[in-house]
Amino acid sequence: MDEILMLINEFEKRNNMSIAFTMYNDGSYSVNEFWDNESLDGGNSVGELKSFLRETQYKLDENGRSYSPCIKLPNPELLK
C-alpha cells in the first residue's frame, strides 16, 4: 500500500491533478479525477494500477494544469 500511495503522490504532482481510486475485493480498481469525477482508468489488478500511476502523463496547459476533459499523452516508451 505504501508503494501505491507514493505512486499516487508522484502521479498527482506530474499531472497537476487530484485523483481518487477505488480498489475492489476482486483486485479490480477504478481511478477518477477528484474534482469533476472524470473516469481516468480502470483495471483488473494491482499491477495494472501501478503501471497506470507510474506511466500515465496528461497534457498540461500553459499554466501547468491538466485539461478538462483530460488528454492522455502517448506513452513515450511506445514511441521508441
Topology overview:
Elements: H1 2-15, E1 19-23, E2 29-33, E3 39-43, H2 46-55
Antiparallel strand pairs: 1-2, 2-3
Helix pairs in contact: 1-2
Describe the overall structure.
This protein has 80 residues and is α+β, with helices and mostly antiparallel strands. The protein has one domain. The protein is built from two helices and three strands. It has a three-stranded antiparallel beta sheet with strand order 1-2-3, covered by helices on one side. Strand 1 and strand 2 form a beta hairpin. Helix 1 runs parallel beside helix 2. It is globular and about 40 Å long. The termini are far apart.
The helix fraction, in percent, is 25-40%
Q: H/E series, N to C?
A: HEEEH
* pLDDT < 50 runs, ≥5 residues: none
Rg on CA atoms, Å: 13 Å
Quaternary status of these chains?
single chain
Mean pLDDT: 92
Distance between the termini: 32 Å
Q: What would a concise description of this structure say?
A:
This protein is α+β, with helices and mostly antiparallel strands and 80 residues long. The chain has helices at residues 2-15, 46-55, and strands at residues 19-23, 29-33, 39-43. It has one domain.
Task: Name some characteristics of this structure.
single chain, about 80 residues, alpha+beta, three-stranded antiparallel sheet, 2 helices, 3 strands, about 20% strand, globular
